[in-house]
Design brief:
Distance between the termini: 23 Å
CATH superfamily of the largest domain: Type I PLP-dependent aspartate aminotransferase-like (Major domain)
Oligomer: single chain
CATH architecture of the largest domain: 3-Layer(aba) Sandwich
Order of helices and strands: HEHHEHEHEHEHEEEHHHEHEEEH
Strand order of the largest sheet: 2-8-7-6-5-3-4
Shape: globular
Largest sheet: 7 strands, mixed
Number of domains: 2
Structural class: alpha/beta
Number of helices: 12
Helix content: 40-55%
């Protein structure tokens, strides 16, 4: 989709194409983050640009562990933190550490497409479980899928592509189910809680993480979205201090971080992230863009669940999704078919674009829906 957007812009001009296909955040990093980067670049601490322990700079891990411990009221230690090249690396090193060939990983549809490749990278077997029609957790379907040989479950809240935020009640019920199955199977089923959109929630919604509920959890975080650093590839994995395999996981994640070729997360941005754990791009900006797009979708007569977080909306299509995608392309609007997220009959539209682009996109979407 990135290349298709480039092609259309070259053909029609950048101002005549609106690309809603990519979650490429439009907001620049907060000013305090830019100031930190500038200071680190011009007055680096000794050894900033040298190798460091594969899990990350000790001072960085100490700061992030302190923040995570306070955020989730858990005794997280620096040794529980592995600095990574974004959430993608954190997921890959975790799956490599957890999986033997042929073991299963549950993903909840609709889901970020690269989860499938991450699981396959390490010999895993993907088990897709559909969500409920409103994109809430379907615990009955999840229970059916939890068979011996399932080693992990990837959870993404706020969700890409739906913007769904799972409630505390849903997460507690899921945790109870996983605990019961773990006891029955004789090993912990680990949740990989992928939370790069944790700070991007709307309407004053309070967000709960399964990290604070279910012991066998690895928190996956990235600063691509909340700090606007998508191109810098910085994030971390945090092992729950209550995970029954805490000690071997510490060693395994450090080892896989190196052997998968990441070696270590970008040094300068480790420090920049550590100093700005409480910062975030202004969520109100994305909420205004969400509201603008949702009003347009309502006018177009499209059915959708209003996103509670992240910066995507996942409307149902009027008929075949690829026909609708083509109609959008004729209006020079790019979106992603729902089949890519294992949920056909939908399209994903990313509203992390400039407001003037979204204002151009809305009438074009209405024309496509009515055409």
């Amino acid at each position: 989709m990135f290349e298709e957007g480039q092609r259309l812009r070259a053909q029609y001009g950048a101002d005549n194409v609106v690309d809603l296909s990519l979650g490429n955040p439009v907001l620049e990093p907060p000013q305090e983050v830019l100031q930190t980067i500038s200071r680190l670049a011009t007055s680096p601490p000794p050894g900033l640009h040298r190798y460091m322990p594969n899990a990350g700079h000790p001072a960085v891990r100490e700061k992030i562990a302190a923040y995570v411990a306070e955020e989730f009221s858990l005794p997280v230690q620096p040794a529980d933190i592995i600095m990574t090249c974004g959430a993608g690396a954190a997921l890959n090193i975790s799956l490599k550490a957890l999986l033997d060939p042929g073991e299963g990983v549950i993903v909840l549809a609709p889901f970020f497409p690269e989860y499938e490749f991450y699981v396959e990278n390490h010999g895993g077997r993907l088990k897709v479980v559909n969500s409920a029609p409103d994109f809430s957790l379907d615990l009955t379907a999840t229970e059916r899928a939890l068979q011996p040989g399932i080693k992990a479950l990837i959870l993404n809240s706020p969700n890409n592509p739906t913007g769904r935020v799972y409630s505390t009640g849903e997460l507690k019920a899921l945790a109870e189910l996983l605990h019961t199955k773990s006891q029955a199977f004789g090993y912990p089923i680990t949740v990989l809680s992928d939370e790069p959109y944790r700070k991007i929630v709307f309407d004053g919604l309070e967000i709960t993480s399964i990290f604070e509920i279910y012991p066998a959890t690895i928190l996956i975080n990235s600063h691509s979205k909340d700090l606007g650093l998508a191109g810098e590839r910085i994030g971390y994995a945090a092992i729950s201090p209550n995970h029954p395999d805490r000690e071997p996981l510490r060693n395994a994640l450090t080892f896989t971080n190196r052997t998968l070729g990441f070696v270590n997360a970008p040094s300068l941005f480790q420090y920049a992230a550590a100093e700005n754990q409480r910062s975030s791009v202004p969520t109100a900006h994305y909420q205004q863009l969400r509201d603008l797009l949702c009003r347009g979708l309502e006018e177009a007569g499209l059915s959708f669940e209003k996103p509670q977080g992240a910066f995507y909306v996942f409307p149902r299509t009027p008929g075949d999704e690829m026909v609708f995608i083509q109609k959008l392309l004729e209006q020079r609007v790019l979106a992603v078919p729902g089949a890519g997220f294992a949920c056909p009959g939908h399209v994903r539209m990313a509203f992390c674009v400039r407001r003037e682009e979204l204002e151009r996109a809305v009438p074009a979407i209405i024309r496509a829906a009515r055409g």
